[in-house]
Structure prediction request, 212 residues.
Amino acid sequence: MNVNDPSDLSEAAESAKEELKDNQLEIAIGRQVRHFRQELDMTVVEVANLAGMSRGMLSKIENGMTSPSLATLRALSKALNVPVTSLFRKYEEQRDATYVKADAGLLIERRGSRAGHQYRLLGHTIGKGISVEPYLVTLTEKSEVFPLFQHSGTEFLYILEGKVTYRHANRTYTLSKGDSLFFDSDAPHGPEELLELPIKMLSVIVQHRSED
Prediction:
């Protein structure tokens, strides 16, 4: 490969990406093996001896550098005292990503919608114990103040544009571009005075699924 040739560098990068993609199962298994070994406070040598393999082989497995056979996985599961299926758990977990272009978030009706507050949902978690919902909230001259929102969980606000007096419980905060507020959303909260319009803020709401 010629390091001075951009096409060679591009091909090498693509090759590395494909190799990483093809190696995801081995990496996931290796991380699980290391996790269970460390949980038992055992060394690589101790687990390798119990599983009937060399220290070097176990090291390769933990680093995702080799694809272990079913017999090897069974030996490791016995040495670590876990089911074979538990070694695949991280690989089977869903890993989601949400890409939203500018001004393309899904318009959502929430309690504040009646007061002229616009909510654009920018993503949400799937199949997790915790719900995370980021919103782009926009307030204009048509918006009304509404400092009485209440819902379970925790909320984070980050002001992108404008200026607002924001109430949380018995305190108020003057928030401008770049300011943030992190709070328990069980308490009454919301904009109490719209000082400079338009106001745009990122709102991230985190809740346990059982609280939905």
Remarks:
- The chain has six helices and seven strands.
- The beta strands are 106-108, 118-121, 130-139, 154-168, 171-176, 180-184, 189-208.
